[in-house]
């Protein structure tokens, strides 16, 4: 028995060493964009870099970006939490339908939302246009976790507060809102990072941010010193946001001790307010989904059958599916060693391995693309403007999306089954394919699906890195809408939305399962 355990431990150590080496290589790759920015700033010299950073144009971009974040995030938080509370805690008509409806805007890329609103209001531009587009695009990032948290909360605490004389507003502010803290901080961080990274939506409404300015610099001077300086400031903003969210989150936990699940909360009866609240939800639906879908249908009707260039659409769809499918597989496979270390180890090393991927993915796609362009030109010229470089960018950008799903799946695999398999003489790889992979497959498939849709609608990095002749749906949409041929762009927008719907619904159903619904 001792000999068997020793043999199993030896095989486990060998497997663990191999997984650790692979994970370290992935971490090294994820730090390429950050290292690129730091090295370019240092190579320019402190004096020249300071001159490029401390100039009026950077100040203007910083003010625009800060204003955008400061205005958009609170509006999204208020809208997302308010809608979640109405849907989950009141007797508003159609409660079973509003949940998936308010997650559905995630299926509409932000640049498609911008296309819809600009089509409806051609004069739309500037800061408040950017706030509007960002709000209707990103508020579900708050709504989804807030609704899931509200479903999990035990209503007994709220009932006790009301029994002690607290009114509805006091109960919400003092009892419910603090328990939404993690949803608020996480959603606010995600929205902020999206605002820093978004290009297409703000370019269409002619609102300058760091990302739009970097893209313009790239087009005019091919990753010149000014563009690198802007990228450095953008990276600093991302790191500040990550550090701020981590500090605000602290170690707070909100958990219910005891067996079973909390009973459902008694829904608030709206009474005479039922109709106004229903109209409010309808107005939110019209702004988030109604406008882009109405404009797409309108342009399709105006363009008629001639906008359905099936040869071009077929080529774009085929290339999009090909890139997205390969990227989804590669990214999910790369997530396994990192997830394995994160699940099977509680050391600081494991936290560093996992956290490194989240830091890199918070960087805007344009920064990652610029880094890979420079690295490929200087050291790997054979990879410049190849599919391999594009796939590498997708992996760096979307690895955390796969990591979340794979990590959850691995956490549910009983370690005892793996040990028993190895004790019966199966090798580490055989145990992985026969036991671990089988049990993790559903979670890995969900993770791959999320990466697939993210790649299928990705724009900025694809525009910079795609090889000549590449025509994804997002690229064709952007090209045609940039030429103000909105009718010809409509089919590509519609297909992107249709492709995103299954994963959006998957996110909704997974959130309900997590809440025990």
Overall pLDDT confidence: 84
Question: Termini separation (Å)?
Answer: 45 Å
Helix content: over 70%
- Uncertain stretches: 1-15
Largest sheet: none
Characterise the protein shown here.
This protein is mainly α. 79% of the residues lie in helices and 0% in strands. The chain has 24 helices and no strands. It has helices spanning 2-30, 32-43, 46-53, 56-89, 95-103, 110-120, 127-138, 140-152, 155-163, 168-179, 181-197, 200-204, 210-221, 225-249, 274-303, 310-344, 348-361, 365-378, 387-411, 415-423, 428-456, 460-465, 473-482, 486-514. α20 (415-423) packs across α21. The two termini are 45 Å apart. The model is unreliable at 1-15 (pLDDT under 50).
List the helices and strands and how they pair.
Elements lengths: L1 H29 L1 H12 L2 H8 L2 H34 L5 H9 L6 H11 L6 H12 L1 H13 L2 H9 L4 H12 L1 H17 L2 H5 L5 H12 L3 H25 L24 H30 L6 H35 L3 H14 L3 H14 L8 H25 L3 H9 L4 H29 L3 H6 L7 H10 L3 H29 L3
Helix pairs in contact: 1-16, 1-17, 2-14, 2-18, 4-5, 4-7, 4-8, 4-11, 6-7, 6-15, 8-11, 8-24, 9-10, 11-14, 13-14, 15-24, 16-17, 16-19, 16-21, 17-19, 18-19, 19-21, 20-21, 21-24, 23-24
Looking at this protein, list some descriptive labels.
globular, disordered N terminus, 79% helix, 24 helices, 0% strand, 517 residues, single chain, mainly alpha
Short description:
By secondary structure, the protein is mostly helical. It is built from 24 helices and no strands. It has helices spanning 2-30, 32-43, 46-53, 56-89, 95-103, 110-120, 127-138, 140-152, 155-163, 168-179, 181-197, 200-204, 210-221, 225-249, 274-303, 310-344, 348-361, 365-378, 387-411, 415-423, 428-456, 460-465, 473-482, 486-514.
């Amino acid at each position: 028995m001792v000999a068997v355990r020793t043999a199993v431990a030896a095989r486990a150590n060998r497997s663990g060493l191999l997984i650790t080496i692979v994970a370290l290589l992935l971490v090294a790759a994820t730090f390429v964009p950050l290292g690129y920015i730091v090295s370019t700033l240092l190579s320019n010299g402190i004096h020249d870099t300071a001159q490029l950073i401390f100039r009026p144009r950077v100040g203007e971009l910083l003010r625009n970006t800060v204003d955008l974040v400061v205005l958009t995030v609170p509006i999204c938080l208020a809208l997302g939490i308010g809608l979640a509370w109405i849907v989950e805690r009141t007797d508003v008509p159609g409660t079973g339908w509003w949940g998936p409806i308010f997650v559905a805007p995630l299926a509409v890329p932000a640049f498609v939302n911008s296309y819809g609103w600009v089509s409806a209001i051609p004069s739309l531009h500037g800061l408040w246009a950017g706030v509007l587009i960002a709000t209707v695009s990103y508020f579900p990032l708050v709504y989804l976790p807030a609704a899931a948290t509200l479903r999990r909360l035990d209503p007994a605490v709220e009932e006790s507060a009301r029994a002690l004389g607290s009114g509805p507003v006091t109960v919400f502010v003092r009892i419910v809102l603090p328990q939404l803290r993690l949803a608020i901080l996480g959603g606010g961080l995600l929205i902020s990072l999206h605002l820093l990274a978004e290009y297409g939506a703000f370019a269409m409404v002619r609102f300058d941010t760091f990302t739009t300015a970097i893209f313009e610099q790239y087009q005019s001077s091919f990753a010149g010193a000014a563009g690198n300086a802007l990228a450095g400031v953008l990276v600093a903003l991302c790191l500040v946001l990550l550090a701020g969210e981590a500090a605000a989150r602290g170690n707070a936990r909100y958990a219910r001790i005891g067996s079973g699940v909390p009973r459902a909360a008694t829904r608030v009866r709206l009474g005479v307010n039922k109709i106004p609240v229903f109209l409010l939800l309808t107005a939110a639906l019209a702004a988030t989904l109604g406008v882009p879908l109405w404009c797409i249908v309108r342009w399709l009707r105006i363009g008629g059958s001639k906008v359905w260039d099936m040869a071009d659409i077929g080529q774009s769809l085929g290339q999009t599916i090909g890139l997205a499918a390969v990227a989804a597989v590669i990214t999910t496979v790369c997530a396994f060693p990192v997830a394995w270390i994160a699940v099977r180890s509680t050391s600081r090393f494991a936290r560093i391995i996992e956290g490194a991927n989240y830091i890199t993915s918070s960087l805007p796609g344009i920064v990652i693309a610029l880094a890979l362009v420079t690295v490929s030109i200087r050291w790997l010229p054979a990879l410049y403007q190849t599919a391999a470089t594009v796939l590498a960018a997708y992996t760096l950008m979307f690895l955390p999306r796969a990591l979340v799903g794979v990590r959850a799946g691995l956490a549910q695999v009983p370690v005892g089954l793996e040990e028993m398999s190895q004790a019966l003489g199966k090798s580490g790889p055989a145990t992985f394919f026969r036991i671990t992979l089988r049990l993790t497959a559903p979670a890995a498939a969900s993770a791959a699906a999320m990466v697939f849709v993210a790649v299928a609608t990705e724009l900025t990095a694809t525009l910079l890195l795609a090889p000549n002749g590449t025509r994804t749906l997002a690229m064709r949409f952007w090209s045609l809408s940039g030429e103000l041929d909105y009718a010809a762009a409509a089919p590509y927008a519609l297909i992107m939305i249709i492709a995103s719907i299954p994963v959006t619904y998957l996110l909704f159903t997974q959130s309900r399962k997590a809440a025990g619904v």
